[in-house]
Amino acid sequence: MKLISDLISFFSQPETETKEKSPNGLCPVCWGYQQYDGKIRHLIKDKQIDINNHKESRPFFEEVIKKHVDGITLKEGLVEDCPTCSKQKEDKSQPLKRHTSIVPLSKDHHHALLLCWKITQGLKKNIDVTRIKTYVDWFWENHVLLHFKIEEKYLFPILGSNHPLVQQALNEHKTLEQLFTNNECSDTQLEQIAAMLNAHIRFEERVLFQEIQQQATNEQLNLIEKHHQGETCENWHDEFWK
Description:
Blueprint: H1 2-11, H2 15-18, H3 31-34, H4 39-47, H5 58-68, E1 72-73, E2 79-80, H6 83-90, H7 103-124, H8 129-155, H9 164-181, H10 187-215, H11 218-227
Antiparallel strand pairs: 1-2
Helix pairs in contact: 7-8, 7-10, 8-9, 8-11, 9-10
């Protein structure tokens, strides 16, 4: 099984050399979530996998792959289909490969998908909507708004403001901004944010980003990577979704 060999090769390297990278054959977008908190790496270290005993450990690797590499396993236990990987499964004739410069933006999208899930979980648990809205407002100001600005300044101009896909994305940005900044605090408003944001992310990942990376020059792609703000870092005090 080539994937097992690739995993062995990947984890035999120092962790500093594999940071922000993914093993061959695995989606670079969702890999960071498949090994959330380094769980896969720690499991493999516990087993002391090396080039001499990997054949005996094949069942162990297969179990790791089954548990941790099938979809995106998030900290709360949610398994979310990667917008990139799931599209690849739908259309095997046109496999998707996200350019490295856009991977950080795609990872932002996964954090936003997790926001949608947290909203839904909070509503299911009948959490006071003000607690949920406080977190949603914080996430908008600290993550979504910054993400939108990077896309609009460095990503969308690659296709041009008159491109229909860019027009759709800009219109959805405006709608989402109105939803996020609305002072109303109700179940309905939160449900609308979760539904609209989820749909918007799917559109960008499966359609818009593909078109952009096909049309972009290396200089344009490097500019995107240069101005991205980095990984989302979150330590929210009120984990209402648990």
